[in-house]
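Researcher: Structure prediction, please.
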Amino acid sequence: MTARICSAILIAAVCVAGSASTALAQAVHTGGESGAYHRYFCPAFKSALAKNNYDLTCTPSAGTVENMERVTRDPTAFGYGQSDILALRSDGLRNGNAITRVRTDDVRECVFAVTKNRDLQNFGEIAVFASQLQFFLPPEQSGSSGTFRFLQKIDPEGLGAADDVSMEESADAAIRKAIATPGGVALFVQFPDPKNPRFKLIEDLGGHIVPVVDRMILNQQVNGQKVYYAQETQVTNAKWLSSGRTVITSCVPLVLFTGAAEGIADPTARQNHQDLIKLVREMRSDALLPQQSIFSRILKRTKQLSAAGTERLSKVSEQARQRAKPLLEKAKAAGRKFYEQAKDGARVMIDKAKPAPKAADGQ
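Model: Predicted structure follows.
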């Protein structure tokens, strides 16, 4: 039978040969070539859509921001990204109508703050002393830097006051600089895999991870959906004489998005795009997620914090803001370098605010 070639500039363009059909290649913009979006998530998406005769091409990029820009230029493409970056950047793209969220599955990256200064114990302290701290971030186009800007936007009087911010060549470089700098803090976003060498680096350099949990952060919503979730994540594996260490911090959902169908001029292409979106939304989550053991481990070892636990941590951060800020303002007004004293005073008050440990049975 002679094949009949059908030409079209649309994502579901089909070439018919008898009863078989194969779609033209479609771009899925991911992230760095060594990153999880490109190495794990896109191949799983590609495999699932191949069963429905779509041929996807995983295309590396600088991350969420660049993916959004590419999808805006080509609405038929797909992209991966963090929900907070989409919330931060979407309004500036065609009045907020250029991006269509396709799915948000139960997979989240987590926000980690790292410092050498163990007096900084919660996000409230980082926020209230932000103008006195030096922040080190991964590259400008990275999701981590985007998260930092989002947190600054929602917390203008706290983290928004930070003006000493340096962009480094990588998250590892930012961590090294922060731990080596008095008053240095690094912030990065990644999947909480305890086998990731980054956590070993933090441990080896003597740094410690500060929980990024705050009521202001956890209250963020976009179209009725939460942007961040407080989760308990494991950052070190169990050793012979000790259990694995966990950290409670805010985690951000991974979003699969595409362009708005309204941006596709051709009616047939537009309808095919809408059909593909519907198909992807109706697929089972496990069909689109990587099956590699790394992500099964992450999902098993990461659990969402209870409402009571979230409230307790949010209150600690809130109290840190309320009690430490007057001390810092007084120090500034006096024109003396009372930063360390103010911080120590805040720690004492926060410790007093924490509930006393429960007594053991029989005591």
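Model: Residues 307-334 form the longest helix (28 residues).
Researcher: Thanks, that helps.
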